[in-house]
Specification:
The chain is mainly alpha-helical and about 300 residues long. The chain contains 10 helices and no strands. Pfam families: BPD_transp_1.
Length: about 300
């Protein structure tokens, strides 16, 4: 106690007891300020992923930009040549240029993957939109059907569907697309339930706007963002699933080149011609990893410094 009767709380003996003005700008658990986002360097992995996709997408529609060779032309005396200057990926057991077959195979594989994502996006978004906005028995019926689809492994369901539909690239795309409908439905429904209680939606309803107009003008544009991001994330998995079905023989029939069928054709020559399966397999792996890397960037997964 001091002479005036005021308790003595003591005085700080060092600057360590004083609050640090810069501490509020630092993330918890970090001893240095975070670098502003606009000054962060471009990550090499993301840049390489964008470059790879930028090369693959034109190749899927204009394969002659990368190679002038005919993917179906067989040259028997050039069979099983290793990768070299004349044939970057070597040749197969019939003397066909493997690089040309991989480039032309991207047309079938990427188009099938894009169609599969589109089927899942459109059908799943429509189902989720109706389930979240209408509610009641519509919501219950659609979500129970979604639960049934989610309970079946994706590859097993796509195998059952493609067996029923028949062989072919388009049918493989439809089968794979159906397997992703349930996830799109759940994401869209969650977004619609979040947005349906917003003030502008309630105001639109109170003003007498019809339900289809409310859905198209107010709910759908605001709920589309997370669904489109998931479509980008799902693309890599779809490429892998389409290639798996093609590997099993359900995709394009020979001699049409497709990434999965190219890997399957070379498995009998692994001991003598490793490039027949390895190089198309590496292309599939690089495409899947690049798509996932770009999707992570779109999702904001690396906005924080590591």
């Amino acid at each position: 106690m001091t002479d005036l009767g005021i308790p003595d709380t003591g005085t700080p003996e060092s600057g360590a007891d004083l609050p640090d003005p810069a501490a509020a700008d630092r993330p918890k658990g970090s001893g240095r300020p975070r670098r502003p986002a606009r000054f962060r360097p471009v990550r090499p992995g993301l840049l390489l992923s964008v470059l790879l996709i930028a090369v693959l997408l034109p190749a899927a529609f204009f394969p002659h930009l990368l190679t002038s060779r005919d993917p179906l032309a067989a040259v028997p005396h050039d069979k099983l040549l290793p990768p070299g200057s004349g044939h970057p990926f070597g040749t197969d057991q019939l003397g066909r240029d493997l690089f040309a077959r991989v480039v032309h195979g991207s047309l079938l594989t990427l188009q099938a993957s894009g169609l599969a994502v589109l089927v899942g996006l459109v059908v799943g978004s429509l189902a989720g939109l109706l389930a979240g906005y209408l509610g009641g028995i519509v919501d219950d019926a659609l979500m129970r059907l979604t639960d049934v689809l989610l309970s079946i492994p994706g590859l097993l369901l796509s195998l059952a569907l493609v067996t029923a539909l028949g062989f072919g690239t388009v049918k493989v795309a439809l089968a794979v697309g159906v397997t992703s409908v349930s996830t799109f439905t759940r994401i869209m429904r969650a977004e619609v339930l979040r947005i349906a209680g917003s003030g502008y939606v309630e105001a639109a309803r109170a003003s007498g706007t019809r339900a289809p107009a409310v859905l198209l003008r107010h709910v759908l544009p605001n709920a589309a963002g997370p669904v489109l991001v998931y479509a980008a994330i799902d693309f890599g998995a779809v490429v892998l699933q389409v290639s798996s079905l093609s590997f099993l023989g359900y995709g394009a029939q020979p001699p049409a080149p497709e990434w999965g069928s190219l890997v399957s054709d070379g498995r009998n020559y692994l001991a003598t011609a490793w490039w027949l399966s390895t190089l198309p397999g590496l292309v599939i792996a690089a495409t899947v990893l690049a798509a996932n890397r770009i999707a992570r960037a779109l999702d904001g997964a690396d906005t924080e410094e590591r």
